[in-house]
Amino acid sequence: MSTPSIGVLALQGGFDAHLKCFDAIGIQAHAVRTCEQAQGCLGLVIPGGESTALIRLLAYSGLDRYIQQQHKQGLALWGTCAGAIVLASHVSAPQTPSLKCMDVNIRRNAYGRQVSSALKSIHIAETQRVVGEGVFIRAPKFESWGNQVQPLLTDAAENTVALSQGRCLSLTFHPEWSNTLNLNLHAWFAQVAFNSTYGFSLSALKDLT
């Protein structure tokens, strides 16, 4: 049997930075490219990259169905930037397939092209307390979400940039490149992943930050 660990999807995109963040806090994490490598994972990070390519590669490898099935059995999921698109129930601009693990409508490249990339302050939802900075690169935008989905973080313009639904966490920015939020969020993901009764919530995030 595989040792319980954290997996980082490594089909495409910025997976290496996530692996380095987990390593920095002493959490066992490994790259996942096949269903076999995903076995034993209690949590899986879907990193930033190109969402259309990620979906195609997930389908080709069979990981799309594997992730959906394992999530129903408790696998914790964390999507960042393109990963948030992959997890959403509906994707627009243009409409593309997704894993539909979260009841979220998301719009691709909502803040403009690569030249519009920015470093923005990140705030706790409701209180607007600043907890760090986030890197936004061709970032998507959450347009709407279901009743079971909870806003967690916003930017200075009060756009929601992080959502949770049970054991699913979704961010439109890159926490792995932030020098203030990254390790806290990676530690939180691992804490939830290794405890099957835990979920991602605003109250837990407030305690964390």
Spans of 5+ residues with little confidence (pLDDT < 50)? none
Look up the CATH topology. Answer: Rossmann fold
Helices and strands: which structural class?
alpha/beta
Just name the CATH architecture: 3-Layer(aba) Sandwich
What is the alpha-carbon Rg in Å? 15 Å
Could you give the order of the helices and strands?
A: EHEHEHHEHEEEEEEEEHH
Largest sheet: 9 strands, mixed
What portion of residues belong to β-strands? 25-35%
Major sheet strand order: 2-1-3-4-12-11-10-7-8
Form type: globular
Proportion of helical residues:
25-40%
Rounded mean pLDDT score: 91
CATH superfamily: Class I glutamine amidotransferase (GATase) domain
Explain how this protein is built:
With 209 residues, the protein is α/β, with parallel strands linked by helices. The chain has a single domain, classed as 3-Layer(aba) Sandwich (Rossmann fold). The protein has seven helices and twelve strands. Strands 2-1-3-4-12-11-10-7-8 form a nine-stranded mixed sheet. The chain has a three-stranded mixed sheet with strand order 5-6-9. Strand 1, helix 1 and strand 2 form a beta-alpha-beta unit. The radius of gyration is 15 Å and the shape is globular. The model has no long low-confidence stretch (mean pLDDT 91).
Question: What's the short story on this structure?
Answer:
This protein is of the alpha/beta class and 209 residues long. It has helices spanning 15-24, 35-38, 51-61, 63-72, 82-87, 182-193, 202-208, and strands spanning 5-9, 29-32, 41-46, 76-80, 88-92, 102-107, 118-124, 130-136, 141-145, 150-154, 160-165, 168-171. The strands form 2 sheets. It has a 9-stranded mixed β-sheet with strand order 2-1-3-4-12-11-10-7-8. The chain has a 3-stranded mixed β-sheet with strand order 5-6-9.
